[in-house]
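User: Hey, my collaborator sent me this sequence without any context and asked if I could get a structure. I don't really work with proteins. Can you help?
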Amino acid sequence: MSASVTDFDTQTFLTDLATEKVGRRFAGGFERIAREMPHLDTQRRQCEEWARTFSRETDKGLYLSGKTGSSKTALAAAIVIDLVSRGFGVEFSNVADLLADVRASYDSDDVATEHEIVEEAAGVDLLVLDDLGAEKITEHSIGILERIIDRRYRALKPIVITSNLDGDALYSEMGDFLNGQRLVSRLCEMVEGVALPARDMRVKKQTTKKEDHAGPRT
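Assistant: No problem. I've predicted the 3D structure and written it out in structure-token form, which is a compact way to encode the shape of the chain:
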């Protein structure tokens, strides 16, 4: 017998959709972080509480900063999983990929236009921008990001950002550009900072594996 409409598991569908957005590497969300990354307990609790209280009236987002490998993306992905699983509209974009999509729109009629990309990013319940500042910074790229961020600012829509740069470093990178100061100024009003400890989990895991393969020490 084929499954009926009433057999459709909405929660499973939403969870699978969330995992598709962030990638299988980040499946498990806050539970996995609590289990595997106890050193991030304070930051996890802050992000989890923010996600738990999220509503379409939320206007203040988060800025997750830390060195490469500090699990910024894992925390942002956990927020995405939580919110998508509860039915919110969320866009999760690596900044370099978002800008590449915009550039591709100039050369093809078969992909979304720049206007459509900006409209989607500006209109969802939550926008998550991953790795801000890692891309090549140009007047054009800052202009695209500033348009998106300014649209969300004026609409009181929150944003979550991950970056290797803290606020001062971000200003140093972008402050010389025409729209850079405006972008950073908007973000200062839109987000609360979450600083992650400088601990590269990827290097730690590789080191642990090598020690395990080496056998017991004498």
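In plain terms: Residues 7-205 form a domain with the Rossmann fold fold (CATH 3.40.50.300). You can pass these tokens on to your collaborator as they are.
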